Structure formats: C-alpha cells, structure tokens
Amino acid sequence: MKLSIDMDQRYAKMRAHTATHLLHAELAKIFPNTKQAGSLVDSDLLRFDFYANNLLTPEQIRDIENNVNQTIFKAFPVDLIETSFEEWVKLWAKAFFEEKYGDEVRVIRVHDGDKNISVELCGWTHVSNTRDIWAFTIISQEAVASWIKRITAYTWPKVIEKLHNYEEILDWASKTLDVKSYAQINEKISKYAKENSELQQRVESLETASIRATLQSAQSRSNSDFSKIIQLPIGTNFKALTWIVKEIFQSEKSLLLYTDEWNYVIITDGSVSAKELAKKYNLRWGGSDMMAQWKDESVKAI
Ligand SMILES: [Zn+2]
Questions:
Q1: How far is the CA of 226 from the centre of ligand 1 (A)?
Q2: Does 70 map to a domain?
Q3: How confident is the model at residue 47 (pLDDT cuts 50, 70, 90)?
Q4: Helices assigned H by DSSP within the chain
Q5: Quick one: which of 83, 147, 181, 267 is 20 to 30 A from 24 by CA?
Q6: Number of independent structural domains in the chain
Q7: Which CATH number goes with the domain that contains 117?
Q8: Which range of residues forms the domain containing residue 60?
Q9: Ligand 1 centroid vs 24 CA: distance in angstroms?
Q10: CA 8 to CA 13: how far, in whole Å?
Q11: How many Å lie between the centroid of ligand 1 and the Cα of residue 59?
C-alpha cells in the first residue's frame, strides 16, 4: 500500500516536472532572453519563477496552455541522454553557464523527431512520453519581484480539481444571481452593475437634496469662534456635505457642523485657521487650513 502511494506521488511529480520543461520552452518563445529564477515541483503542482519585466497577458497564458496541451496530446518522446558536457554544449546548449556541471551531464530532450520541443540539463526523473502528463493548466501568475514573475500550474489530475473549484464558484454565482445556466451569469452581472450605478447616482442626488434641505432648515447657534454651529442627523454623508456647505454658506467666516456620531467638520473662509480652531477646542485635527474634520467626542461640548 505504502509503495503504491509512493509510486503515485512519484508519477505525479514526474508529470509536473516534465510539464515544467514544456512551460519553460513556451516562455522562452515569448521572452527569448528569460532565464529560470527558481522552481518548485510537487505532486501535479509546479511553480516556475523566471526573469521578465512584464506579466503575461491573458491571451499569452491561454496560448501557453494550448501549446503545452498540444505537445501533450501529440505524444512526443521524452528522451534521457547521458553525454559529456562538451557534447552537450556543441549540440544544444543555449546559455546558463553560471551553474557548474560535471564532465557527464544528463539532458532531457522532448522532441518531434528532428525538431526539439525542449532540451534541458536536468538530473530529475521524467515521464517517458508527453502524453503521460495528460493535461496542463496554469492557475496563477504573479510578480515575485518587479523583474521576476511566477507561474503556478497543475498537471492531471489536479486540472480536474481546478475545474471543480471553478464549478463550485460558478454554481454559487448562479444560485446567488438566480440564473439557470452559467451562460446567463455575465448578462445578469452586467445588468446588476448598470442598475447599481444608476441607483448610486439616484442615491447621491437624493442625498445632496436632503443635505441641502437639512442645512437650510437647521437650527443653528453660534459662539465667539463659530458664526454657525449646526448639529446634523446621524448618518449624514460628510463627503457630500462639505461642498454643499461651501455653496450655501459662502459668506460665513467659520462653521462647525457635527453629528451625534461625533463626526465633525470645521469650514472657514480662510480668514481664520480651521486647524487653530480645532486645536483651541482640543479637537483631533485632519485636513487643510480651511477645513478640519475628524471624529471626536469633545465636539459635543462646544
Ligand atoms: Zn528539470
């Protein structure tokens, strides 16, 4: 039993490793000067780091997946060649000579007769034919550093696992959006997004109207520092508030507006400093010299 699990894992790693070589070969077509910056091979899982300034586009990712899967379907042989380092350099070497190799090297060559698909120096064990990988899919791409990108990919049977994960997400989305097929998800989301932006616009204009009405009818008091002190209803949108206040109370020297949630804003015409006024009343200050705003309970004592 133990032996068969070990064998399963061994094959799973062999699939992932040969797929790493195929991925490397595809990346080299897109980034001719790229080099491997690291890699991790696990059971039907591979992570490949390479030097590149840009991330791949979704189309490039799709192309790589298609090409690697084509190589898999075409059942190309994966040969192990043991040869001398000199012979290898003569025959196939591209250039990664920072690494040290002994006199004898192992070359893994995936080929279609005369045509090389991938040739790499490698000490690992591989599948003997690309069809044994069965399937390949990229699950993510990220920038590890600005000049190093990372691709994580699956080989069979994790490809099915990815499909199942996506299916779960799509099932959830279909249920949540109340549609009968995956094909309707796009349409429904676009419809909701459009409705949402229309509603947002309506809410904003209602909010503006309501703030304007509140400000115009609000009871105000004053003290020696503020020509108007106005308490506003809880939930007032302070972001929308400030420009409406500026418009309505243009001629006021200094205003203090606050809510029972202790959001406050001080707006001045510039002749007095909002920052100084906030300081005078021990209010936490944030903003510009003409406008201070924060959340501070001390404002209720003013
Ligand atoms: Zn290798």
A1: 75
A2: yes
A3: very high
A4: 2-30, 58-73, 85-91, 158-177, 183-217, 238-248, 274-280
A5: 83
A6: 2
A7: 3.30.980.10
A8: 2-175
A9: 10
A10: 9
A11: 26
- What is the CA(2)–ligand 1 centre distance, in A? 26
Based on the domain organization, do 16 and 147 belong to the same domain? yes
Q: What's the rounded Cα separation, in Å, for the pair 151 and 56?
A: 10
Neighbours of ion ligand 1 (CB under 5 A): 122, 124
Which of 135, 156, 175 corresponds to the end of one domain?
A: 175
Asked if the model's pLDDT at residue 64 lies above 70, the reply is yes
Q: What is the pLDDT of residue 96?
A: 52
- 35 assigned to some structural domain: yes
- DSSP secondary-structure letter at 131? G
User: With bands split at pLDDT 50, 70 and 90, how would you rate the model's confidence at 237?
Assistant: confident
Strand partners, 36: 50
CA of 21 from ligand 1 middle (Å) equals 6
In this structure, is residue 181 part of a structural domain?
Answer: no
For ligand 1, the distance from its centroid to the CA atom of residue 298, given in whole angstroms, is 67
How many angstroms is it from 168 CA to the middle of ligand 1? 34
CATH number of domain containing 242: 3.10.310.30
